[in-house]
Each structure stands twice: as structure tokens, then as C-alpha cells.
Amino acid sequence: MEKEGLQAVVDNPNQPFYKEETLGGKPYFTAVYPDVAVSQACVTCHNEHKDSPRTDFELNEVMGGVVIRIPL
């Protein structure tokens, strides 16, 4: 579900992704919100981080996502 949600916010950064899922036999409401590079400091930090999967992020680009799970 996380991969699906992250791809959804990359494809449409103006719309959060919502879905219900079951983990460990328990139902959850899950939301993924885009993590957008809102300043040059964000871009620089992500591009220079040793564990970053990319080094070419740009300002206002989705760099990842914030995942929130609420038990139902």
C-alpha cells in the first residue's frame, strides 16, 4: 500500500492518497501526503544525503511522502 500511495502522490502531488488496509489482522485507514521540497534547503539536504536514492531533486518536487495510519 505504501508503494501505491507514494506513486500516487508523485503522479498527483496536489491530492493525498487514502486507502483502508489490513495489517496483522487489524484494519487501518491509511493516508499518504506528499513531502514536497518547499525550500532550497530541502533540495540540498536530500540531494547530498548519503542514503538518498536520488541526487537530482528540484524545488517544489515531491521527494517522498508522509504515511499516517489510524486503527479502525
N-end to C-end Cα span: 16 Å
**Spatial order of the strands forming the largest sheet:** 1-2-3
**What level of helicity do the residues show?**
25-40%
Class per helix and strand makeup:
alpha+beta
Specify the number of helices.
Answer: 2
* Mean pLDDT over the full residue set: 94
Find the count of extended strands (DSSP E, 2+ residues). Answer: 3
In short:
With 72 residues, the chain is α+β, with helices and mostly antiparallel strands. It has helices at residues 2-11, 40-48, and strands spanning 17-23, 26-36, 62-71.
Detailed description of the structure:
This protein has two helices and three strands. It has 72 residues and is of the alpha+beta class. The chain has one domain. The protein has a three-stranded antiparallel sheet, with helices on one face. The mean pLDDT is 94.
Question: What attributes does this structure have?
Answer:
72 residues; 3-stranded antiparallel sheet; elongated
Task: Please outline the helices and strands.
Layout: H1 2-11, E1 17-23, E2 26-36, H2 40-48, E3 62-71
Antiparallel strand pairs: 1-2, 2-3
